[in-house]
UniProtKB/TrEMBL annotation:
<protein>
    <recommendedName>
        <fullName>LVIVD repeat-containing protein</fullName>
    </recommendedName>
</protein>
<keyword id="KW-0732">Signal</keyword>
<feature type="compositionally biased region" description="Pro residues">
    <location>
        <begin position="81"/>
        <end position="98"/>
    </location>
</feature>
<feature type="signal peptide">
    <location>
        <begin position="1"/>
        <end position="22"/>
    </location>
</feature>
<feature type="region of interest" description="Disordered">
    <location>
        <begin position="181"/>
        <end position="216"/>
    </location>
</feature>
<feature type="compositionally biased region" description="Pro residues">
    <location>
        <begin position="181"/>
        <end position="195"/>
    </location>
</feature>
<feature type="region of interest" description="Disordered">
    <location>
        <begin position="72"/>
        <end position="100"/>
    </location>
</feature>
Length: 638
């Protein structure tokens, strides 16, 4: 039965007397806005297919799709040489698990950007594409180096890849790590019989088996030198106890010789026999690899000297020092007892404001990163509408944060007509100091089928001056572009979607990531390869606004490392403000037309008169329009 749950948030800061997130109670009535579902949307009912699926798009247009190359595409990967092992027998009494989706080759993962090059991570390694002409993007380099999830980050001539799989090898070999003869994985135990201690308790998932030690195994961060883009060379491999699901670049303005990486993940901890110092102990073990992230220091000139320099206890209770100081239950109203948070999925840093936002499985957190080696938690939030805190993003002003919920882990259909619009969604918060206040939820609004894995996933800002706009991937829900300039009422302004990979069976796919970079949107499609899109004018976004956004160019870009965007005081920027003021009725259309003409003809006297009027009108305008008016007036009087 569809039941709309509403947010009940527990927020804590370091000044709080107790740093534990208590089990959350649900309020009786909705407290914040969430956008409505659109059952008659053009995206509903699209034809399935890998290369010939139906397409619906609005406000953006697909201009290039490049299928995955050999070694990564279906029928060409090393893993397909042998049949997969049979799935383990289900635990008696445990709830039935949904069927696993089929795979088409090796999974495309995240993206990083360096100059004209687009770097696409993949569970088998990475591919580099030349987008010097985005409309003729082409494959440049393929590197086979298996190990999920090959999350990619770039800095200068260095490329970093996150590895957590137990089958990954130091030498990048494709043969995996063979199990020793006679090795038998532990048998999963079912619930105790009736009358026995513990009978009647919910079935618990058994711990994942830790494979026997092997000196050839690699789990951690690979470092490649990509100075020669055609021949990347692995120059370092930093081992860690859990490996790493994602990595985040962090810089220190006072340290030009080194960069840092925050490593997030929650995979099983390896044996100390395989990597000295690793421990899966509990809270009484000061050396446990649980309840922490990992900080790696990378000497830029000598990456071979990279090493772990800290494992900060960012989940600790500031009053007691207990490292498991954050615990939360009641996710999706499950009513479960609070469970401690032991790791993060992803961290986004914004050095310009000295903060990072962490999506840490059961909670969202804020970190003070002014000292990159020793990040300190300054706030934490919980929400019963979230099942898995996946990623985070700041707006350019640094006064709003978006957290996303990866309901279903990304591999399940969670955007169906009956699925709540506050589950598997984005939550939008206002940030003031270290206090986060929930304003609204946003979810891709077009219902998807049972054959399409769908939930909120990766995205970044589109740098339109005067607005907060995010482009975001939703797996087989496609791409959705959201305006959240008013954080209390976000709405969709553009989208792209395909039908399912197959109309008869469930195949895993869709957009892992969708990011704006230097005027275009690039999407890593899990099964179909690399997409390139361009924005097109619409009711919600003008040609002038698109042109203003395209002024912003970067030499490199990692979406989890946000740089402060400074808009040039040009007439291109000014025309975007004019369109926005006319759209919001803060400026009459006739005056907008006259102002545009004055800018085109550079009529200085008229422009100064317009500036005086704009500054006067700003005093009675909405906050968003007032900011546009004052910024536009400054441009007109330069």
């Amino acid at each position: 039965m569809l039941k709309r749950l509403t947010a009940s948030l527990v927020a804590i800061t370091l000044s709080a007397p107790v740093a534990v997130l208590a089990q959350v109670a649900l309020p009786a009535k909705p407290t914040v806005y969430n956008n409505p579902q659109l059952p008659n949307d053009p995206r509903v009912g699209l034809k399935g297919g890998v290369t010939d699926a139906g397409i619906a798009e609005s406000g953006m247009h697909l201009i290039v799709n490049l299928p995955k190359p050999p070694g990564f595409a279906a029928g060409t990967t090393p893993q397909e040489a042998a049949p997969p092992p049979p799935p383990p027998a289900p635990v008696p009494g445990a709830p039935a698990r949904p069927p696993r989706a089929l795979q088409l080759g090796s999974t495309n993962s995240d993206l990083a950007f360096s100059g004209q090059y687009i770097i696409v991570g993949n569970y088998n390694g990475f591919n580099i594409y030349d987008a010097s002409n985005p409309e003729k993007t082409k494959l440049t380099t393929s590197v086979m180096c298996p190990g999920s999830q090959d999350d990619v980050t770039v800095y200068g001539h260095l490329l970093f890849l996150s590895i957590e799989s137990t089958g990954s090898r130091l030498d990048c070999g494709t043969q995996g790590i063979p199990l020793p003869p006679g090795f038998v994985a532990p048998v999963r135990q079912g619930p105790p019989p009736a009358g026995a201690p513990g009978a009647g308790a919910p079935p618990q998932r058994s711990p994942r088996a830790v494979e026997p030690p092997n000196p050839e195994r690699f789990r951690g961060v690979r470092i490649f030198d990509i100075s020669d883009i055609l021949h990347p060379k692995q120059v370092a491999a930093v081992q860690t106890c859990r490996g790493t699901h994602t990595n985040t670049l962090v810089t220190d303005p006072a340290d030009k010789d080194n960069v840092y990486l925050y490593l997030s993940g929650y995979a099983p901890i390896r044996s100390s026999e395989e990597l000295a110092g690793c421990s899966a102990g509990g809270v009484d073990d000061p050396n446990t690899a649980l309840y922490t992230i990992v900080v790696i220091k990378v000497p830029v000139a000598h990456p071979e000297l990279s090493k772990v320099v800290n494992s900060p206890r960012i989940f600790s209770d500031p009053a007691t020092g207990a490292m498991n100081g954050l615990a939360v239950g009641n996710l999706h109203g499950e009513g479960a007892a609070p469970q401690p948070v032991s790791g993060c999925h992803d961290i986004t840093v914004y050095p310009a404001i000295g903060l990072a936002a962490g999506a840490c499985t059961r909670v969202g957190i804020l970190l003070d990163i002014k000292d990159p080696v020793h990040p300190k938690r300054v706030a934490a939030i919980s929400d019963p509408n979230f099942s898995f805190w996946h990623s985070a993003m700041f707006n350019n002003a640094g006064d709003r944060v978006i957290f996303s919920d990866e309901w279903g882990g990304g591999g399940q259909p969670r955007c169906r007509a009956a699925d709540p619009m506050t589950w598997g969604a984005d939550s939008i918060f206002t940030l003031k100091g270290a206090e986060l206040t929930l304003d609204s939820y946003y979810k891709m609004p077009a219902p998807q089928t049972e054959l399409e894995n769908c939930t909120a996933h990766n995205g970044n800002l589109i740098p339109v001056p005067g607005r907060d706009i995010e482009v975001q991937s939703w797996y087989q829900g496609g791409v959705s572009i959201m305006d959240y300039t008013d954080p209390k009422k976000p709405f969709e302004i553009a989208y792209f979607d395909r039908g399912p990979l197959d109309s008869t069976k469930f195949i895993d796919g869709g957009l892992w990531s969708a990011y704006w970079y230097n005027g275009y949107i690039y999407g890593a499609e899990i099964a179909r390869g690399l997409d390139v899109y361009k924005m097109v004018p619409s009711t919600f976004l003008s040609e002038n606004e698109i042109a203003a956004a395209r002024q912003i160019t970067m030499s490199q870009m990692n979406p989890q490392y946000q740089e402060k965007i400074v808009y040039p005081p040009t007439f291109v920027t000014g025309k975007a403000y004019v369109d926005q003021l006319v759209r919001s009725n803060a400026l009459p259309a006739a005056k907008g037309t006259a102002l545009m003409a004055a800018m085109d003809k550079k009529k200085t006297k008229e422009l100064k008169a317009f500036a005086v009027a704009l500054n006067k009108d700003a005093s009675s305008a909405s906050p968003a329009d007032a900011a546009r008016m004052t910024a536009l007036a400054a441009i007109l009087t330069r």
